[in-house]
Amino acid sequence: MRRLAGGLLALLLTASGGAAAQTPVPLDEIRDLLREQSFEPPPERSLAALRADDLNSSLADVDPYARHFSSQEAARQDRDQRAWTGIGADVRFEGDQVWLQVYQGGPAHRAGLPGRVRLLEIDRQPVAGCEVKELLQSLRGESGSPLVLTWQAGREMPAHTTTLIRERFRPLDVELVEPWSQGVLRVRDFLAGRTRPALMATLEFIERSDPGAGDAGSPLVMDLRDAVGGDLYEALDLAGLFLPPGTPLGSLMARGGQVRDFQAPRGDKLVMPLVLLIGPETASAAEVFAGILQHHGRAYLVGQPTFGKCSSQTDRRLSDGSVLRFTNREVLLPDGQSCSGRGLTPEMVVGDSVLRDLSRLMSLAMALQAGRGVVGTGQEAVVQ
Amino acid sequence: MKRMTLMVAVMGTLGLAGCATTTDPHEGGLLGGIQGMGSGAYDQRVQEREDRLEQLRQAQQELQTEREDLEARKTRQRREVALERERLAALDRDVTGLSRQVESLSDRHGEEDQRVQALQTRLDDLRGRMNTQQSALDALEGSGMGDAETDLRRRQLEEQRNALREEFDLLMELSLDLAR
């Protein structure tokens, strides 16, 4: 109903694999749904051109964010459903390179892999030139099974070989990035009803572990560089946590131009300064959250311009148990504009090498925070 | 002549080697041993050995304390997770009660009543999140996470369960309004 899915290739590799049973795709049901409920009614000839044998490609011609998931795929990608079995990392393909984004507390993290590594080999076999499916298959496996990964922390860094054991793992809904003393919280997905309480619990945890950590106006830094989407209402709820009651949060536009407005609710509020780390992969719900707070001058954005997707998708289960995701709403930020196609521009723009260097980003964030009166004019600082 | 010179040179080396004494019993040759006993180094070695033994005892004591702390932490974590399970089970019972109430509302107002439908949708959503909460608790018990991460995870789950309780209270209020 309200999912803002990221349009990036972020494949979760922690769920166990399994061959999907082939069942006929209910094409007419899909056509009806798209015809009646898409944000923009698709041309009939595009609907007629949908093909069961290559459904996702033909769906992309109708709606760039539409996607069909078999029932197994749908269950596998649902973060809320269960714990996963695997190495505790997302895999991301960047050109011909394969990168792992490691979850705090997962098997890969505990085996010593840092937050983001370039994957070179799996069980001594080079990943270069590997098919995506084949690569994911190599990473997946039963709980307790070993795996040898060769990786490097960056392009020019030395290669390491690490043996780790796949296991059952459920990631933190809000991660506290190491070292914990710097108080950086990472959100990768806005989970309905979960991210806001998890954020509150994490803040309380930091305060309890290091009393006074939030004193002297030290900012809360939220890392959204890998946040590719999630639940829209959760993003709105989270933004409302930082704004006075009644502050406009934006609106949701349905087919035919019907608009529903949202305001910040009453209740607990967070008053500390806020810095958000963003990048080209920050998309969808994460862009909505960041865009609202930037509009109200409540957060400073550091990083690179975001992906630019403020449309909202809904997931509908079909009669065969599969799921169709398609665009049915457009989110308007408090300035009445959508971020689709333009993204958000941070107050401080950094180069590629800085973007992936958390310690340098943190230094910049602190400097920006210290001089907030100056950068509040909207000037951009470019750091390479 | 040449051979003699070589002999002298070798003897000279041996003489110098004899002067290089040590107090380490592993290296104590004849000369070193005699030299060591005569100079009181033996007592020093005994003292060193006793010091090392004392250090070992202390290290063992620290390890034992650490092990006990670890056990205590694990026991505490298990207790806290069990407590969290009880709270979730209590909420589940309440939700089951609310579910029956919504069914009776449906009978009274009709299945088509939009208010009842909205309540039912939110109740279904709440149930789904309760299941998520349950599976997250299961995962916490079997996870290989470190102590601090487990603690953080448990705190997040507690806060998420509090949020579920708030949602339940709200739905209960709505249901009571509809029942009046």
Automatic annotation (TrEMBL), chain A:
Q: Which residues form the signal peptide?
A: 1-21
Q: Does the keyword Magnesium apply?
A: no
Ranges for domain Tail specific protease come to: 157-351
The alphabetical list of record keywords is: Hydrolase, Protease, Signal
Q: Which Gene3D superfamilies match?
A: 2-enoyl-CoA Hydratase, Chain A, domain 1, 2.30.42.10, 3.30.750.44
State whether keyword Hydrolase applies: yes
A GO BP annotation: proteolysis
What the entry lists under Pfam families is as follows: Peptidase_S41
Q: Where are the transmembrane segments?
A: none
Matching InterPro entries: ClpP/crotonase-like_dom_sf, PDZ_sf, Tail-specific_protease
| Molecular-function GO terms, alphabetical | endopeptidase activity; serine-type peptidase activity
Entries under PANTHER family matching the protein: CARBOXYL-TERMINAL-PROCESSING PEPTIDASE 3, CHLOROPLASTIC (PTHR32060:SF22), TAIL-SPECIFIC PROTEASE (PTHR32060)
Task: Give the protein's recorded name.
Answer: Carboxyl-terminal processing protease
- Source species: Ectothiorhodospira marina
Question: Lineage of the native species?
Answer: Bacteria, Pseudomonadati, Pseudomonadota, Gammaproteobacteria, Chromatiales
From TrEMBL, chain B:
User: Where in the sequence is the signal peptide annotated?
Assistant: 1-19
Q: Keywords for this entry?
A: Coiled coil, Signal
Coiled coil, from the record: 46-174
Q: What is this protein called?
A: Uncharacterized protein
The protein's organism comes out as Ectothiorhodospira marina
Q: What is the lineage of its organism?
A: Bacteria, Pseudomonadati, Pseudomonadota, Gammaproteobacteria, Chromatiales
